[in-house]
Amino acid sequence: MRKFGKFLDYFFTGMGFGSICYLCVLTFANPGVPPTAKGVVSIFILSGLIGILSMIFKTDLPLLSAIIIHFIGSFILFLTMSFINNWLIGWDSIFIFILVYIIIWLIILLEQRQTVNKLNAKIKQRNFNRKS
């Protein structure tokens, strides 16, 4: 049951990132284009699958291999999303995909750094309290 909870956690995290990206693209790149039910559902499902694909980083694969596999898998899911929604694929959409992929990675890295800093501060405080 615990693994299923992790599975859902990754799925919903991916769904969140995908939903934000979809809203940003509709707002800034395609203003005036209304979201469709098919578009929203496909974003939810395929972004969730990208989130599940992120579980690859919890394996014993070397980081570079995991990043390459994740990037390729994410790009294939992005192409699938584009096909389902009849979005045109061109150099501009590929550039946007890569840019969004990098931005999401930066957000995750900053979040992890913040978590590590908080944990380190708690450990230092605990060690200081033990010495006192």
Automatic annotation (TrEMBL):
It comes from the Bacteria. It comes from Bombilactobacillus mellis. Keywords: Membrane, Transmembrane, Transmembrane helix. This is DUF3021 domain-containing protein. The chain crosses the membrane at residues 7-28, 40-57, 64-84, 90-110.
